[in-house]
Structure prediction request, 138 residues.
Amino acid sequence: MIDRSHGLSLSRQAQLMRISRGSIYYRKKTVTTEQAKLMHSLDALHLAYPFAGSRMLKDLLQLQGQRVGRRHVRALMQRMCTSALYCKPRTSTAHRQHKIYPYLLRNKAVTHANQVWAMDITYVRMLKGWMYLYAVVD
Prediction:
């Protein structure tokens, strides 16, 4: 695609091909033997503890005597396409038996107070647990 020995500059060739100029200079990093060993250890630990995230895997690796940081473990997990298995919150998924109500304000002009009210709920983290925050807007 890109010919480095051509008379046109590399940036002009990238512009004509409609690709990012930075992608021309990108060189994929090869995996070192040390990283391959670490990834092998991560894979074995992930099979033994599929619920473990980067923090727990870092601690398990350090118990095995390998010096590694949590962010490095997280980067390797992303490279290996692995993630911790746990039940994630499904707060926005509707149940199939719940009724879907129509949007009543679609073509309604709001002209005075107390005509339309809106409400929202969120969670706020406290020192010991969570607190609900309700907001009502007129």
User: Anything to note?
Assistant: The mean pLDDT is 89. The helical segments are 10-17, 22-25, 33-48, 54-63, 70-80. DSSP finds five helices and two strands in the chain.
